Amino acid sequence: HSNNRKLPVIWLETSDSGDNNIAFMNTTYPYLHQVLTDMIDLLYSNTFMAAQGEDALDLLFESAEEFQGEFVLIVEGAIPTKDNGIYNIIARTKNGNITALDAVTNLGGMAQYVVAAGTCASFGGASSAAPNTTGSVGVGSVLKREVINVSGCPVNPDWLVGTLAHLLMYGKPELDELDRPKLFYGNTVHRHCQRRSYFDKDDFAKKLGDVECMFSQGCVGPRTGSDCPYRQWINHVSWPVKVNTPCIGCTNQDFPDASAPFFKP
Ligand code: SF4
Ligand code: F3S
């Protein structure tokens, strides 16, 4: 790293499956320990911190005060808004419940940058899928400020760590029309897909497992922005189409409802 400054980060998990922090742990170049020791100063995270209960909550408020206007708020998960946000409570205190809606609203106003990690935080995602009984929405819908959306179900660790690295070293990355960093989401899956030559020859798979283009099986790669075909997953070794699964559009604003059913044989 080029300087000694670390990025102060407060990581709030709201309504998601926890898949995004698990994906984050798979980071390579830099590895997780390097991210946590050299790159970010992780002030609060219910997954990665040792403190629990009131001690953890005190740390949350103290660090938000201390680093006001400087910290990055990472939100992992959608925000339930129905019935005053009662469907996600991050803490119970003597003064009442603190909902995810309260916490994200307050901390979002104090942060230098707000980063939505994963498709739930970015756009509502699976947590807001029909019939969305909790009235869940993405972070950008509850904050009156810009949110950097780093979508994906889960987020690819490179997309999240790369965004944080960009914030640390160069400031805000250039964003697309959905407020996502263009360097990761600027091209479609289809553009660089290894089966693109089949698509161009109208040579389509008749069933899952065939080697040809899976547009016939419901692949939504042509309308999905991400660099999966060359960045890949799990230490950069594979990605959905490479293992015979159509792209189901997990980075999209309308995922998962508009992608369902995922397979259309
Ligand atoms: Fe495009 Fe999907 Fe076919 Fe790949 S498999 S070429 S992403 S439609
Ligand atoms: Fe998601 Fe499609 Fe990549 S489903 S992981 S954007 S190939």
TrEMBL record:
Domain Cytochrome-c3 hydrogenase C-terminal: 185-262
Keyword Iron: yes
Record-annotated NADH:ubiquinone oxidoreductase-like 20kDa subunit domain positions: 21-167
Keywords recorded for this protein, A-Z: 3Fe-4S, 4Fe-4S, Iron, Iron-sulfur, Metal-binding, Oxidoreductase, Signal
Top-rank taxon, per record: Bacteria
Main location: other
Subcellular location: Cell envelope
Cofactor(s) recorded in Swiss-Prot or TrEMBL: [4Fe-4S] cluster; [3Fe-4S] cluster
Subunit architecture: Heterodimer of a large and a small subunit.
Family: Belongs to the [NiFe]/[NiFeSe] hydrogenase small subunit family.
Protein name per UniProt: Hydrogenase small subunit
Organism field: Pelosinus baikalensis
Covered residues, full protein: 35 to 299 of 329
